[in-house]
Design brief:
Layout (H helix, E strand, L loop, with lengths): L1 H30 L6 E5 L2 H11 L3 E5 L14 H9 L2 E4 L9 H7 L5 E3 L25 H18 L4 H26 L8 E6 L3 H7 L2 E6 L9 H14 L3 E5 L5 H12 L5 E6 L14 H16 L5
């Protein structure tokens, strides 16, 4: 009897163990991607949307920072940390754009690929301010952004080599669209007289854009929106507007408009009628699901808005 009782107990323990293991296995399946797709989390949408095209049916891509979000000031939430931990690959821009997330990236990179895609761009191609800080807004130089997106594509090909040919084909097709966008943008912006090609914005996010299209860029703030705006910054900007008779200045979708409005008011006191040329997308794209929520659509919006305003064709 004693031996029989022991057998029953052992059988019960074995059954319990199997049930526990089954429950654990079920939980693991629920937490992982059941469709076999590569789960990618990015910081900014300028990475997420193009990578969703390049990755095609083999990826799911989520951006932590949506429309109107300033990456310079962004701090990761607990929800963000969970998304990063549950991902297969993390792509961020780098070059200190997401300055408050450095420790998060360092931690995540010890567990999975976490790539600052713009960090792959050669240093000699990057712009720097007077203090030597690198300008991180490289997506406004289409050729440089192709390099960064190429780095992300290489990581995808390494992660899923069985789909490498498809990833590469998607990249090449998308890059042809970017080449056409660059040619179209150059043609349109070249229509602005040289003396009118002055782009005044809230912060210095358009340096690469200006270099690409021979436009002088004046940002009230420095490369980061954490930089302070002084009275002298506003006065110097008004002086430039007055000297070159620039007809319009621009606000940014992710930046407070008060400084630009101060410039407009100050120029008015100097006898210059400066209009608000429109809203540009700088550190963030438009709402997901809209034309401006795509990289190409956002870029075209900026080009058209600047073209119309500086030629006096805007509102």
């Amino acid at each position: 009897m004693r031996k029989k009782r022991l057998s029953v107990i052992l059988a019960g323990l074995l059954l319990s163990s199997l049930l526990v293991l089954g429950a654990c296995s079920k939980g693991k399946t629920d937490d992982s991607s059941s469709d076999g797709k590569i789960k990618i989390v990015t910081t900014i949408a300028q990475i997420a949307e193009p990578i969703s095209i390049i990755g095609g049916d083999h990826v799911t891509v989520e951006s932590l920072m949506g429309a109107g979000v300033d990456p310079h000031l962004y701090r990761a939430t607990q929800g963000d940390i969970k998304k990063l931990e549950n991902s297969d690959i993390v792509f961020y821009s780098g070059l200190n754009l997401e300055g408050n997330m450095g420790e998060v990236f360092a931690s995540i990179s010890s567990k999975k690929p976490a790539i600052g895609i713009a960090d792959s761009i050669a240093q000699e191609s990057l712009l720097k301010d007077e203090n030597g800080a690198v300008d991180p807004h490289v997506w406004f130089d289409i050729d440089l952004w192709k390099i960064a997106l190429g780095t992300a594509t290489d990581e995808l090909m390494k992660f899923a080599p069985e789909h490498a040919d498809e990833f590469n084909a998607n990249k090449e097709s998308y890059f042809k669209e970017l080449d056409a966008l660059l040619a179209e943008s150059k043609d349109k912006l070249s229509q602005i007289p040289k003396e009118k090609r002055v782009l005044v914005t809230a912060h210095d996010a358009f340096g690469y854009f200006g270099r690409a299209f021979d436009i002088e860029v004046v940002g009230l703030q420095g490369l980061s929106t954490e930089d302070e705006i002084g009275i002298s910054d506003i006065d110097d900007t008004i002086a430039i507007l007055t000297e070159y008779k620039i007809p319009a200045v621009f606000v940014e979708s992710s930046i407070n408009q008060s400084s630009i409005k101060a410039v407009i008011e100050g120029a008015g006191k100097q006898g210059l009628d400066v209009k608000l040329g429109g809203e540009l997308f700088s550190d963030a794209m438009g709402d997901a699901g809209t034309t401006e929520g795509t990289y190409i659509g956002m870029y075209k919006h900026n080009v058209n808005t600047i073209h119309d305003a500086l030629l006096g064709e805007g509102n």
